[in-house]
Amino acid sequence: MTASLLRILRLGVKELHSLRSDLVLMLLIVYTFTFAIYAVATGAKFDVENASVAIVDEDHSMLSSRLRDALLKPFFNQPVLIGASEVDPGMDAGRFVFVVEIPPKFEPDAIANKHPSVAIDIDATAMSQAGNGATYIQNIIHQEILAAIPGQAPTNPIDLVVRAKFNPNLKSDWFTSVMQIINNISILAVILAGAALIREREHGTIEHLLVMPIRPVEIMLAKIWANGLVIVTAATVSLLVVVERVLAVPVVGSLPLFVAAAVLYLFSVTALGILIATISTSMAQFGLIAMPLLVVMNLLSGSTTSLESMPFWLQQGMMVSPSTHFVAISQAILYRGAGLSIVWPQMLALFAIGVVFFGLALMRFRKVLIAMQ
């Protein structure tokens, strides 16, 4: 047993030296957990920011001017006054996301409590911004009318108080930064583990291992722990430096518990990478197989869209993916401060899926080695 552990340790150290000498992979790791996290968190926003708005003001009253002045940065750009004939050409050209049409006699009708209509035309091409922005504009118009003519405007029968937990300012970068780390862990774990095996085959060093008293399971475990160590270290540093320090995103949960969950997850996805590598005959073929699989895993894991919004059969199907459980664990720990008593079922599921992937990869790896002898 001790001799086997020593062989796994030495083979893993060899993997680390091999990875260190590969400048392209080292640059990929650094880029993935630094600039890629920052760029996605600050650039890919789901909330409304600097949306273009046009106003068709056919009333030219104090109330219509008040509504126009209420559309402020950072949610909206300075509103542009246009004529009714410019609405369709402007939206067709993509110059405006929102067009607010204020009808004639709007202020007198509002004061007389005749319930005049205000039309909001929306370019729903950018679906998330369109939905959120329309809600913002409706609330702004309602609040401004209540403030301008409180005696005539309809009042709400209840006082609705909204409290947002875990992300009180509803900032999208708080969500996207952490989820991007998780997505990048998935991508790098599969690529590094698979590339390590294919590199052995292409360079001919796999034949050197075959003449040594080394078992296939030891080769696999060495590649898993070596590549997993690099990724979990890079992800932890990225979480502490890029997310917490640079992006100022608070991490409220236990970092050791998150690292433990990441280790279990890496056991699953590195085994998956080795499994794909045993099916592939070249690095190009490996990429063609791995990338579509990774896209589906990342998009349907809950890191981009809510799992509950998917069809029931797809929700159940994604339960066999380790990324689904790791996203749920990470969100519970890093956002809500959950402990082991809450996330242990998902961690157990991660371990079970990892055992299955490891077993399948080991069977395929043994067949490959037998065919090479």
Explain this structure.
The structure is a single chain. The protein has helices at 2-20, 23-32, 35-43, 62-69, 87-92, 106-111, 127-148, 172-203, 205-210, 216-246, 255-279, 283-299, 312-317, 322-335, 340-372; strands at residues 53-57, 80-81, 98-102, 119-122. The protein is mostly helical. The protein has 2 domains: 2-44 and 171-372, no CATH class; 53-148, abc type-2 transporter like domain (abc type-2 transporter like fold). It has a 4-stranded mixed β-sheet, covered by helices on one side. Helix 4 links the parallel strand 1 (53-57) and strand 2 (80-81). The longest helix has 33 residues, at 340-372. The two termini are 26 Å apart.
- Structural category is mainly alpha
Give the strand order, joined by hyphens, for the main sheet.
2-1-3-4
Q: How far do the termini sit from each other?
A: 26 Å
* Uncertain stretches: none
Q: How helix-rich are the residues, as a percent range?
A: 55-70%
User: What about the largest sheet?
Assistant: 4 strands, mixed
Give average pLDDT, whole number.
Answer: 85
Distinct helical segment count: 15
**Percent of residues in beta strands:** under 5%
Order of helices and strands: HHHEHEHEHEHHHHHHHHH
Tell me how many strands there are.
4
- Overall shape: elongated
> What is the number of independent domains?
2
